[in-house]
């Protein structure tokens, strides 16, 4: 895995801990909740947790914090594992689940009760919220705080046996209802849920809270550096309180960094799920979605994502990263790696009058001009070709450099061509161009033969029909999450489907292979549909059209 020598504050902490013997090497973890697909924001956490472990010769665990059976699903587990592998990382040891520790967690909960540090509460959710107080007013003790240790143990054990309805009781930590940190005002440790869990089935009807599960799971696994985003900073005192009061040798520490906020991008699992459920998009892996599954299907390379995460760095300051930074990383990678080909997205028929209708000339063209080791490809030139409608104008604007009636252009890799006649239908729509080529102009222009415009083309005889999906940003608002309704920020032009003509050699691509359509942009063979028919997804245009400087 490529890494640049960037010393952010977390790497400095880890380096000092190793140097001073606080740990022999870091043990980190990537701990998603399996309640949705991962998005671009998670990529930063993946690259950080796996990256620092690799750089310092340590280990990174893959652990699912699966404590809420109401929102979790095996589909999400499978997709998350696939995403981590796709990004190029491999976890240490087996895949871990917080649910594997349910017996341990239950035992620690009983220990807290026996220490007088936890109690069973019978307040409903709304009353508990009121009792908790506000940022400026202290909370109020629950009546359950007065129960004896024996009463609490008895009720908690009966909760486990399934004797009570959902919402009847919770188990709460006894800390401080007057704490200025609301997270320390007797947080919930367990709640009753009579539902099946994707890992443990019906073995449990009480489930631990995330805040209770996470630090204990870290300690059980010997995590040295528990790295999370800044929204968990206020939860750290409870994390430390639990570590202090449980009987485990390991003492992990929590460290926070700023999450990734990307312009024109939505990174809320809940709202992304809403887009899927309301069929605004075709699914979690729709190429317009910021999910890693969608990004992958869009054709954005994993190496470009890793490069992007390295470029933006790791800080404790919240900010919004301009999406053009990611675009730069994508173009930088594809410019070096994507082969070249020609595709006509809006086909217009051209007949070459001075070319034998039975003759085909095969022209050699480079696969990638800057990478001669990739070799060449063969392009068929025939009596009839397709050019793009946007490359011809009967009434050209000022500065037009492409084809006009009586004008000339160079056909990419081939001849100089002149438009001699235009055939239109009854409505005035151009149907066919009748042209001629200068047979002395194959290859570089001879001296004294100057033609400004160069256009791409595809043989009508050998060209292949392909569906091209012109994906663009899903949102036209720079910060789509600012308004009341994210649907108001949708880009109505986020997808246009075209029936194109492409070079025949593109049929040799495999799913997820990328290519540059010359003058059009970068495209990828759709990972799911390619086995059925040629479908290309636009990854990105050749030039930025969204940045403020480009507008």
Helix- and strand-based class? alpha/beta
Q: How many separate domains?
A: 3
Total count of strands? 27
CATH superfamily of the largest domain, called what?
HUPs
Mean pLDDT: 94
The CATH class of the largest domain is: Alpha Beta
Strand order of the largest sheet: 12-25-26-27-23-24-13
- Write the CATH fold name of the largest domain: Rossmann fold
What general outline do the C-alpha atoms trace? elongated
State the major sheet. Answer: 7 strands, mixed
Tally the helices: what do you get?
12
Helix coverage percent of residues? 25-40%
Characterization of this structure:
With 551 residues, this protein is an alpha/beta fold. It folds into three domains: 9-262, Rossmann fold, CATH 3.40.50; 269-337 and 466-540, Orthogonal Bundle (Glutamyl-tRNA Synthetase, domain 2); 340-462, Ribosomal Protein L25, Chain P (Beta Barrel). Helix content is 25%, strand content 23%. It has helices at 9-19, 40-55, 74-87, 102-114, 125-132, 149-161, 210-221, 236-245, 269-277, 292-298, 302-312, 323-337; strands spanning 27-30, 59-64, 96-97, 118-121, 170-173, 188-192, 206-208, 225-229, 253-257, 261-262, 320-321, 340-341, 343-344, 347-352, 361-366, 376-381, 384-388, 408-411, 416-424, 430-438, 454-455, 457-459, 464-471, 495-502, 514-517, 521-525, 535-540. It has a seven-stranded mixed sheet with strand order 12-25-26-27-23-24-13, with helices on one face. Helix 2 crosses helix 11, helix 7 (210-221) packs across helix 8 and helix 11 (302-312) crosses helix 12.
């Amino acid at each position: 895995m490529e890494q640049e020598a960037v010393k952010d504050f977390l790497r400095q902490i880890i380096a000092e801990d190793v140097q001073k013997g606080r740990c022999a090497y870091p043990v980190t973890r990537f701990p998603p909740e399996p309640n949705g697909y991962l998005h671009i924001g998670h990529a930063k956490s993946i690259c950080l947790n796996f990256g620092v472990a690799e750089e310092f010769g340590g280990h990174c665990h893959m652990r699912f914090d699966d404590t809420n059976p109401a929102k979790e699903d095996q589909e999400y587990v499978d997709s998350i594992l696939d995403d981590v592998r796709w990004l190029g990382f491999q976890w240490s040891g087996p895949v871990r689940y917080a649910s594997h520790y349910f017996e341990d967690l239950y035992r620690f909960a009983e220990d807290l009760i026996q220490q007088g540090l936890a109690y069973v509460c019978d307040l409903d959710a709304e009353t508990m919220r009121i009792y908790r107080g506000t940022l400026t007013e202290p909370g109020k003790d629950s009546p359950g705080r007065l129960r004896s240790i024996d009463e609490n143990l008895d009720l908690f054990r009966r909760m486990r046996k399934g004797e009570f309805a959902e919402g009847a009781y919770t188990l709460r930590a006894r800390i401080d209802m007057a704490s200025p940190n609301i997270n320390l005002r007797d947080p919930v440790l367990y709640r009753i849920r009579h539902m099946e869990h994707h890992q443990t089935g019906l073995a449990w009807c009480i489930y631990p809270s995330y805040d209770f599960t996470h630090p204990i799971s870290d300690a059980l696994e010997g995590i040295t550096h528990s790295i999370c985003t800044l929204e968990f900073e206020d939860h750290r005192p409870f994390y430390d309180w639990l570590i202090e009061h449980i009987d485990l040798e390991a003492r992990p520490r929590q460290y926070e960094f700023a999450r990734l906020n990307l312009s024109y991008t939505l990174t809320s699992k809940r709202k992304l799920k809403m887009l899927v459920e309301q069929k605004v998009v075709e699914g979690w892996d729709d190429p317009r979605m910021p999910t890693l599954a969608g990004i992958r299907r869009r054709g954005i390379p994993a190496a470009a994502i890793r490069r992007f995460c390295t470029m933006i760095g790791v800080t404790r300051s919240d900010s919004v990263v301009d999406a053009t930074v990611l675009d730069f990383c994508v173009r930088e990678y594809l410019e070096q790696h994507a082969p070249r080909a020609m595709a006509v997205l809006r086909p217009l028929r051209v007949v070459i009058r001075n070319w034998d209708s039975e003759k085909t000339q095969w022209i050699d063209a480079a696969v990638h001009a800057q990478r001669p080791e990739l070799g060449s490809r063969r392009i068929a030139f025939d009596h009839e070709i397709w050019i793009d409608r946007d490359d011809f104008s009967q009434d050209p604007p000022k500065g037009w450099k492409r084809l006009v009636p009586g004008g000339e252009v160079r056909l990419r890799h081939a001849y100089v061509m002149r438009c001699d006649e235009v055939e239109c239908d009854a409505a005035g729509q151009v149907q066919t161009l009748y042209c001629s080529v200068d047979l002395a102009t194959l290859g570089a222009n001879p001296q004294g033969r100057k033609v400004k415009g160069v256009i791409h083309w595809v043989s009508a005889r050998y060209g292949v029909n392909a569906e091209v999906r012109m994906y663009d940003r899903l949102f036209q608002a720079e910060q789509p999450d600012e308004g009341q309704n994210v649907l108001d920020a949708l880009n109505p032009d986020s997808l246009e489907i075209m029936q194109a003509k492409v070079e025949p050699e593109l049929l040799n691509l495999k799913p997820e292979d990328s290519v540059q359509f010359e003058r059009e942009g970068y495209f990828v063979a759709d990972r799911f549909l390619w086995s059925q028919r040629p479908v290309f997804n636009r990854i990105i245009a050749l030039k930025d059209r969204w940045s403020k400087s480009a507008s």
